[in-house]
Specification:
single chain; mainly alpha; two-stranded antiparallel ribbon; 10 helices; 67% helix; globular
Length: 279
């Protein structure tokens, strides 16, 4: 059931991206075909609402499915927030509706955290790369923010979200009530720091692909150009270190190790602090 929830979150996210994508102004060498010109001439806006309707319908229908299947499978869905996991009873339709909505919002937040990281890492990459252009289009007006703000803002938003949602979760009996506002604020700040850990798999994926394409030529395409540029920008801080031996560059391997162990021990440390704050 947890795997099904993940798949449905990805489908819901694709519906959202299609809705957003239909509103973008298509420009550049990858949009100059006659077919594209004919499509642009056809009014598309009236059909955009179907993606939002499909998204809303998916969230409601899956809540009904969870309500039917969850109790018989003894499934208790959890909302993983890094250092804390919020459980929801699958035998209550209202709880399943809440879980369905919050589960998608969490996937939505993680996806946009990835976009923010790509925006910061590749801020010098030109819009001629269609992948990076899509990243900037999906961020919209947030793209104009300074790099430091793009990193700090999610931490502050996560803290504020915890302050707003914790009383709701406690009121439904999903979490124990905080002993004081100071305790709740401390928990929120730790959750804010946990947003950095959402970049773990994106960083490992980009560095791993960059390492692979450094030794295996996969042809010329915008995606592989994007991967190469992202990998080079990520390992740029390691360039002053003597990590080359002849034609072999060990910087990507060192970067992968730093991300893996750094994120692992950061997660352990933050979880211990959260548990201590919750006592």
């Amino acid at each position: 059931m947890s795997l099904l929830d993940l798949i449905l979150n990805l489908i819901a996210l694709l519906l959202w991206l299609n809705w957003r994508g239909m509103g973008f102004q298509q420009t550049g060498p990858y949009s100059s075909s006659l077919l594209h010109t004919l499509r642009i001439a056809t009014p598309q806006r009236p059909r955009r609402w179907r993606y939002l309707a499909g998204l809303a319908g998916l969230l409601v229908v899956r809540a009904l499915v969870y309500r039917q299947l969850g109790p018989s499978l003894h499934w208790v869905p959890h909302l993983p927030l890094g250092v804390v996991s919020v459980p929801f009873r699958s035998d209550a339709l209202g709880r399943m509706l809440l879980f369905s909505g919050f589960s998608f919002l969490l996937a939505f937040a993680v996806f946009h955290l990835w976009l923010l990281l790509l925006s910061v890492v590749n801020r010098s990459l030109a819009d001629t790369n269609p992948v990076q252009r899509l990243v900037r289009q999906h961020l919209g007006w947030i793209e104009a923010w300074p790099a430091s703000v793009k990193i700090v803002a999610p931490m502050l938003l996560a803290t504020l979200a915890w302050l707003a949602l914790h009383p709701l979760f406690a009121g439904f009996g999903l979490l124990p009530a905080a002993g004081s506002f100071r305790q709740m604020l401390g928990q929120g700040l730790l959750l804010g720091l946990m947003t950095v850990l959402a970049w773990k798999f994106l960083l490992l994926g980009l560095l791993g692909l960059h390492l692979f394409t450094s030794y295996v030529h996969l042809g010329v395409s915008p995606f592989w150009e994007f991967v190469t540029a992202s990998g080079r920008n990520l390992i740029e801080p390691l360039r002053p270190l003597p990590l080359r031996a002849g034609k072999y560059d060990f910087a990507p391997l060192v970067a992968i190790a730093l991300v893996w162990f750094g994120m692992k021990y950061a997660e352990i440390g933050l979880a211990m602090l959260f548990e201590r704050l919750s006592r």
